[in-house]
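3.2 Worked example (two chains)
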Amino acid sequence: MYNISMAREFDFYVVPTPIGNIKDITFRAVEILKSVDLIACEDTRVTQKLLNHYEIRTKCISYHKYNERERVDFFLKELSEGKKIALVSDAGTPMICDPGAVIVPELIKNGFSVTSLPGACAVTTFLSQIPREGEDFTFIGFIGRSQKQIEEVVKKYSAHNMVFYDSPERILKTLEVIKNIRGEVKIALGRELSKLFEEVVVDSISNVLDHFKDGIKGEIICMIYADEDVSTGDLEFKIKELKSKGFKDKEISVILSSLFAFNKNEVYKKSLDL
């Protein structure tokens, strides 16, 4: 068993960095970045600006999605020699749509201790400033590029508040595809969070498209609100279809929760009532 709570000092630190405002970093994060022997980062040029601002002299080494696997042996060797390593991304928290998913399991498998510091993350920054009913949401990372990929994920999570990242070059086309599928759905769109031109808009999808008709710039995060009436009716329809094919209540709950991200317990209860 891997114990993640007992050690005070760790071998490997996952360290969030500011998503915009350079002051959005914790005292502990600065302390860790100064104390470790090596900082693994997506782009050394980007990270170096942050390190220079806080007078951090620790050596950096590139670690991004194109060299993640080839860096594993190097990190294992450095750690086996007693060195401490911190992982950062260009902005935000590593492993949240950023590198880290390859190295962390390998470190744990090889007995090295890993911890993550709390800090900046676009998802929580965004969700904490928009109106929501309830706490549940589905985060899918970067939404697909093709129309088919967008259609599939929007249909799959129609019963949930769906949060995703997108580029400023694609977001308006993405919203047009979503509008064709979901109609006049309510959305929240944020750009340039924590930066000088931060903007968050919550409105119908048509009004948001009109608001940005002249174009949009900056890092984008968006949430498509669940349509409760549609999702409830859709769930009942799917349950009745499966019942007509001879599936049992428990089987139906597993199938629908797996394929469409419905809550398994809710599906089971609904199936019992129908």
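3.2.1 Second chain
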Amino acid sequence: MEAKAIPDSPDDISTFYIQATESIQQRWPRTLKQGDTFAMFDALGDCIEPGLTPGGVFHNDTRYLSGVQLLLDGQRPLLLSSSMEQDNVVLTVDLTNPDIYQGNAIVLPRETLHIRRSKFLWQGACHERIAVHNFDTKPQKCWLTVNFAADFADLFEIRGMVRAKRGDITAAVIGGAKTIFRYMGLDNVERRTEIGFDPPPKTLTRNQALYELELPAGEGLGIIMTARCTSSDMGGSSEPRPDFTQGFSEPYRAARRGAARAASLGGTVTSSNELANKMLHRAGADLSMLVTDTPQGPYPYAGTPWFSTPFGRDGIITALEMLWLDPELARGVLRYLAAHQATTLDARNDAEPGKILHETRACEMAVLGEVPFGHYYGSIDSTPLFVMLAARYFQRTGDTDTMRELWPNIDAALTWIDDYGDRDGDGFVEYYRVSENGLANQGWKDSSDSIMHADGTLATGPIALCEVQGYVYAAKKEGAVLATALGYLSRAHALDEAAEKLRVCFEERFWIEELGTYAIALDGAKAPCRVRSSNAGQVLACGIASAERAQIVGKGLLTPEMFSGWGIRTLSADAPRFNPMSYHNGSVWPHDNAIIALGLARYGQKRAAAAIFEGLFDAAAHMEMMRFPELFCGFPRRRGTAPVLYPVACAPQAWASVVPFALLQACLGLEMCFEKREIRFSNPQLPRFLEEIGINGLVLGDASVNLRLRRRGANTEVAIVSKRGDIAIRVTQ
């Protein structure tokens, strides 16, 4: 993600620091996303004066609808209920009228009219059906008003960046049923918001639709409002359908079909615990909402609202955490990133041949270069993670055709590691910002203050992060296996040797005996940053740590200084820059915990992995919809209290949404081996809140199996319910 650490002083503020004047969760609790469009509304389904907050409807990081408000006789309705449906497709809001006065007399008693707002996104448009029903025994009259606005604010403006100049906005009413807002950007692209109503209102202006409702007793009326996002570089017709039924029902059915992916994710794993089932279903539904179809295949956009776009690191880690259950997602991520791999040197974008994308944006400020994120490569870890994902995808699927297609990209990524990643030839991969407008820190903790020494002094570059060396080790070690399978034997031998050399050097330079952990990084002078952090936990997931030291690291991660009770903090509570409310210096990130749990399980520390799962499960029970946010605060757990939320965290966030599946894999020691047609369980241990789980339709090659796992005392039994094709189950204790 881009930097948004809480600065110690104005001098520490990153260029891309996200200003926070209000809590997103408090102001905009309802989120919709489909394709390149997302929307955030308040509980009533409105967006009123969002200002520098991400309320409204966005397409390609531009806000096309900055205001919408429904009124009855000039007053806001009373909220009855507001909820997202289980598959995240439709926001349903139930409202009723307040007491409506004329003078001192009530002319419309409260709770006479019922208003149901149903909103969803489909193909760049926000569709809404407003159904009003009169439950009185006599006719009722009232005015229904919909106010609306479009500011075409760039997402980076909303995040707090000030632009010297903007384009021009105009608006026109067309035919009494549609208002069109036009914004001619400085990039010479005309962006349009087309707001259509069916049936047409009595009065329509550039900012308001006014309906005079005359409702017979027991009857109602339906109004369709469509806010469509178009631009001169999209092409094609974008006219809202005038017919009432097709204007809402047809895209509604299409949106439902498009969300069917959720059923194949969360529905694949079930348990004996109803709360756990809700968590698993929410995880699958959230991932389904964030996955966007690209020409190369499905890709999980990082998260709403700030990162609803492809991110290299996020997409890879999401795919890695879901690989055992859904390898097709990994294939889409690999092919997309290969198609966007850097091929030339471009200092403006931190691009170098073979480097894998950090992020891409299509908003006006990115197109103009006001921010460097059009195609930005300032990530030190996306490239080795890309190779890791490719190697593990091959082990999972045996998909030789895709690997041969992608081998030139994989080989180029491995070459980048040696030619550009290791800047000084010491064997470690370091980062140093080339673009003056890019990110100062380029690991996953990319806040400006996230890498420090024991006295709190910020490290200066080039910086070699501990977990990045682990990623590079795994990329070379596992890349060697892939190269062997594809027949590149000399390349495989060289990679294997390089991996072993790196492992030895890493143990010598990064281990801090007195702390019992690996240094978070080496600075530009090769001095270790002697700070306990969660980064050392991610090292374990790559296999570079010795077995003895992995045990020491694992125990340290579960101490009160590191483990809040809800999860492992990003930074130890005794570190000089610890702040439980910071973005990276003491908060709890679910995806970080999932990677750590997989690392602990790799070294046989199943109880520690289960403790992480149990803490995060308890945290999820306090979260709305049992949805894991991007992060939450690292305050210690207290009896009778809930986790403290982070005010501008993304929710949903792709690599957070898949955490339950990754934690389950860690606890079960689950590994999929295509070569031997085996599903392996190494000392499977269900956490305490799960007595039994079912894994249905687990596919390996052309075979599939339904499994049932049950906890029996200290052990977990694995039973085959049914299977199809050649597939074996192997359980080791």
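3.3 Remarks
The chain has two domains: 10-258, 261-668.
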